[in-house]
Design brief:
Elements lengths: L3 E6 L7 H14 L4 E5 L2 H6 L3 E3 H4 L3 H8 L20 H13 L2 E8 L1 H16 L5 E6 L15 H19 L6 E7 L6 H4 L14 E3 L7 H14 L2 E7 L31 H13 L3 E5 L3 H4 L6 H19 L5 E10 L2 E9 L24 H7 L11 E2 L2 E2 L8
Parallel strand pairs: 1-2, 1-4, 4-5, 5-10, 6-8, 6-9, 7-8
Antiparallel strand pairs: 2-3, 10-11, 12-13
Helix pairs in contact: 1-4, 1-12, 9-10
Length: about 400
């Protein structure tokens, strides 16, 4: 009887999510799995029997290396909310029938909070029906908002990109010598980890951003305008980094003040966009100052040309660790990163009960934010800087990076 593994990717992609996929694949093969299947478009694709035998596709060391250096999700992704098995037993019966037909013994899912919710439900149902399939979650999110792990793979590379781009935007914003406000919108939803990375731009060769607006602190438009006006009295050009997820005291997202159309996904997450544009327009209208908005958008998660070597290495390690623990009999767990030391930076991996991770958010501690709520304290720099160190350069062909992709997607 064959013993096979299956792996899927879910949620928003990152620059290093495929490195975790490579870690799972090689970890399973080295431990004796007969085949490693990939779900095309996550659990939603699996329900439609859309799979690929990775053992037949990734058949060379060069392809594995290209996979590690290719951004986005090689297997495709989805935002599919799996109902509880008490609500829809049919879906679970269908899923487990598909897994049985594929002779699956080990199931891996790479993703964030919503993906860990999927691992929770599947492992619980497996226990209910006495299935011996092992279910393991592998962390991934540029938002860095998963609890019980020091940080998440994907965050380091996105933080590196944000810090790099902010330095370039700051240089660009100073060239004209006239009053000018640049408002830069950064991803992260309800957690400010990625927006805080804009502060990493400050160094001996860069002034850094002038203001941070983080979702951990309720946003007041009048206070924002007052602080902006005060900054303009001491300098001509200022750069402000704002999180897409900043909220008003009444709980509304600032971006909802604009008249943009909003999309809500299966998990109830609103499409957050337009925050910087709204604030930039408000600055021009209320302060009479020239302003421009910049929305980094998906560039933050697909910039494979500035991948952090630390990040891509840890992404591979958590994938390999998931395979190790699953083959040892663990199930219903997520692989977490444990920081051992800051200087020199060292980390290790450990399994955590996924039930204590799913649907929970880790936010920046308020004590890491300064008293005026406009900047981040040095402890954040100590936390984040090790995660952006070194680079893993893409393999360039004819001047551009070479990627690997599935034509079936």
């Amino acid at each position: 009887m064959l013993k096979n593994a299956i792996v899927g990717q879910s949620g928003g992609p990152t620059a290093v999510i495929n490195s975790s996929l490579a870690g799972v694949f090689q970890g399973c093969i080295s431990r004796g799995a007969d085949n490693v299947y990939g779900m095309i478009n996550g659990i939603q694709g699996l329900l439609d029997n859309k799979t690929v035998n990775l053992t037949q596709v990734l058949d060379s060391s060069l392809e594995i290396e290209l996979l590690k250096r290719t951004p986005s999700a090689y297997l495709g992704s989805c935002r599919y909310k799996l109902p509880h098995y008490n609500e829809d037993t049919f879906i679970y019966e269908k899923l487990f029938k598909i897994l049985k037909d594929l002779q699956i013994h080990w199931f891996f899912y790479i993703g964030g909070n919503d993906s860990m919710d999927t691992i929770c439900k599947l492992s619980d149902y497996a226990k209910e029906i006495n299935s011996d399939i092992r279910f393991m979650g592998i962390p991934k999110t540029i938002d860095n908002d998963l609890i019980l792990t020091d940080h998440t793979p994907g965050y380091g590379s996105a933080a590196k990109y944000v810090g790099l781009v902010m330095k370039e935007i700051i240089r660009d914003a100073t060239v004209y010598g006239t009053q000018y406000v640049t408002v830069v919108e950064i991803m992260g939803r309800n957690a400010g980890w990625l927006t805080a990375a804009a502060a990493l731009s400050k160094a001996e060769d860069c002034e850094g951003v002038d203001m941070l607006c983080l979702p951990e602190v309720p946003f007041n438009t009048d206070n924002f305008l007052t602080k902006t006006e005060k900054l303009l009295k001491s300098r001509k050009s200022i750069v402000i980094a704002v999180s897409e997820g900043i909220k008003l005291p009444d709980g509304r997202y600032v971006c909802e003040l604009s008249d943009d159309a909003r999309f809500t996904d299966a998990f109830g997450h609103k499409n957050l966009t337009g925050t910087a544009r709204y604030l930039s327009n408000m600055i021009m209208k209320k302060l009479g100052t020239k302003s421009r908005s910049v929305e980094l958008s998906t560039l933050q998660r697909c910039a494979g040309h500035v991948t952090s070597r630390t990040d891509i290495t840890e992404a591979y390690q958590v994938g390999g660790a998931a395979a190790k623990y699953a083959f040892e009999g663990h199930t219903g767990e997520m692989i977490a990163i444990k920081r051992v030391s800051d200087d020199p930076y060292q980390s290790t991996t450990e399994p955590k009960d996924v039930h204590k991770v799913a649907n929970l958010e880790k936010k920046i501690p308020l004590e890491w934010i300064n008293e005026s709520y406009t900047d981040i304290e040095p402890i954040f720099h100590q936390y984040a800087r090790p995660l952006i160190q070194a680079e893993l350069t893409p393999i360039f062909i004819n001047g551009l990076p070479r990627h690997i992709y599935l034509k079936e997607l």
